[in-house]
Amino acid sequence: MTFAERLAADAGLIEAHLSAALAGRADQPVTEAMRYAVRGGKRLRGFLVLEGGRMLGVPEDRAIGAAAAVEALHAYSLVHDDLPCMDDDDLRRGQPTVHRKWDEATAVLAGDALQTLAFELLTDPALGAAEVRIALVTGLAKASGIDGMVLGQALDIAAETAGRALTLDEITALQAGKTGALIGFAAEAGAVMAGADPRPLRHYAAALGLAFQIADDILDVTGDEVRTGKRLRKDAGAGKATFVSLLGLEGAKARAAELVAEAEAALAGYGKGAANLIAAARFVIARDN
Amino acid sequence: MTFAERLAADAGLIEAHLSAALAGRADQPVTEAMRYAVRGGKRLRGFLVLEGGRMLGVPEDRAIGAAAAVEALHAYSLVHDDLPCMDDDDLRRGQPTVHRKWDEATAVLAGDALQTLAFELLTDPALGAAEVRIALVTGLAKASGIDGMVLGQALDIAAETAGRALTLDEITALQAGKTGALIGFAAEAGAVMAGADPRPLRHYAAALGLAFQIADDILDVTGDEVRTGKRLRKDAGAGKATFVSLLGLEGAKARAAELVAEAEAALAGYGKGAANLIAAARFVIARDN
Q1: Residues of chain B whose pLDDT is less than 70?
Q2: Which chain A residue shows the shortest CA-CA distance from B103?
Q3: Do A153 and B28 lie within an 8 Å CB cutoff?
Q4: Distance of CA B25 to the CA centre of its chain
Q5: CA–CA dist B35, B119 (Å, integer)
Q6: Number of domains in chain B
Q7: pLDDT at A235 (0 to 100)
Q8: Do the Cβ atoms of B157 and A106 come within 8 Å?
Q9: pLDDT at B236
Q10: β-strand pairing of B95-96 with A95-96
Q11: Which site in A100, A177, A271, B36 is 20 to 30 Å from A93, CA atoms measured?
Q12: What is the CATH number of the domain that holds A204?
């Protein structure tokens, strides 16, 4: 299976698992909003869980709950990020954002319940022994809370009122929290389930996560709003420092390519088994959405 | 130790555990807002964890992580409930609400990170074997997500736009989610940690939770804003059905007393060991804040 086929197949598996997890819940607008919010997207984080697992011998029917959990957590963060008091976005994955389609209260609650769902999904016995599941809960909590994703979002808000553009180190730290921590958890989850050394996947994910964000900044400048399904050119309009404003467009592309090479090198020991993860790293900087 | 002394002592233990859990985290307004949001309050849910545990032989230094987790989860729900798009409250526990003291974005993020913290606290090895901790994570997720607390909040929002007052059954279902589910988890947590039959504590908590909400509705009518530290007379102003509007003030008081008797009966098998939990049930309908 090529990387593109694998990514699409995994997205289908994750979609089905999330649909099943949300079936039979209370018939309320909040439940509908949760289903809406977990639909679509590339599912790159969920793919990292499944493919990292496969590379280390964890079958996808064992890993799928963790992949779905990461995507539920990511969906919650998008719903809350899009709120008027946060990024105030009307469009996400080419569709109206949750607070535009319903209202703000529904968006707050749907995001809240998607975070809860993420942790609930990690309790699935199919994921392994209780020790493994607790390690996954611990990892997801650290990646997504005040030491991880929320810290990145807090640094992002602080940057907007700092009265000066961030330095390269500051932006790198911000992104390590905002995007990097959850990508890191996703990539390492396979090693947690397999009981394998998590360090190669950790190094891979650190490089991949930063490359992903640099590519996002490049897309913000060069991308197409129809293809990306979201509003672009926000950063330049807001006078925010980005990897592109700090490194220049060519410099940013060169740095992203360097990081992809680092991600590949981190997995060199796994030979052909790492092929799809390496293709994912290349995809991250080549994507147009 | 009398119940009042025990409640105060447990509040101190929980406060200390939450302070320690939030020490050494990133120095950001969101972190400050999290510390602020977990301060104060009666800590009734945390007390239920600790006292339910003590009744079944679980020492408090083993149960404290679960008590702190329940209080972190409760604090997140209050921060988000107070948001302008939800209940739009300026005052909580006699202090400005988080979005009034900071801003809405900080309140959204602090609430989000407090939910994450709650699950992180449940991974503490002191709580017991991994199986026990996973059972606690499962229980907290079910109590707080779309099957529990968020469902209650969704029903509350739906009630506001229903164009008619709710029936007694509908209000009871709403409260079973909004307040009852988390109180139920708190009371059962001791049985989960002890590996004991959770049913007596479950029955106790179901009666206690409903009595608690009826008492809240009574306080909304008869209470003092200075003592309660929050805005009152909201429900009557909004024309919302409450236990008082449906049963009358005396009828509501009688129903609450009945429920306290049910809560006592559920724990009859534990003899003196249940004294503080029984006192808690009496306190719930006698409190003035």
Answers
A1: 226, 228, 230, 233, 235-239, 289
A2: A85
A3: no
A4: 25
A5: 17
A6: 1
A7: 65
A8: yes
A9: 59
A10: unpaired
A11: A177
A12: 1.10.600.10
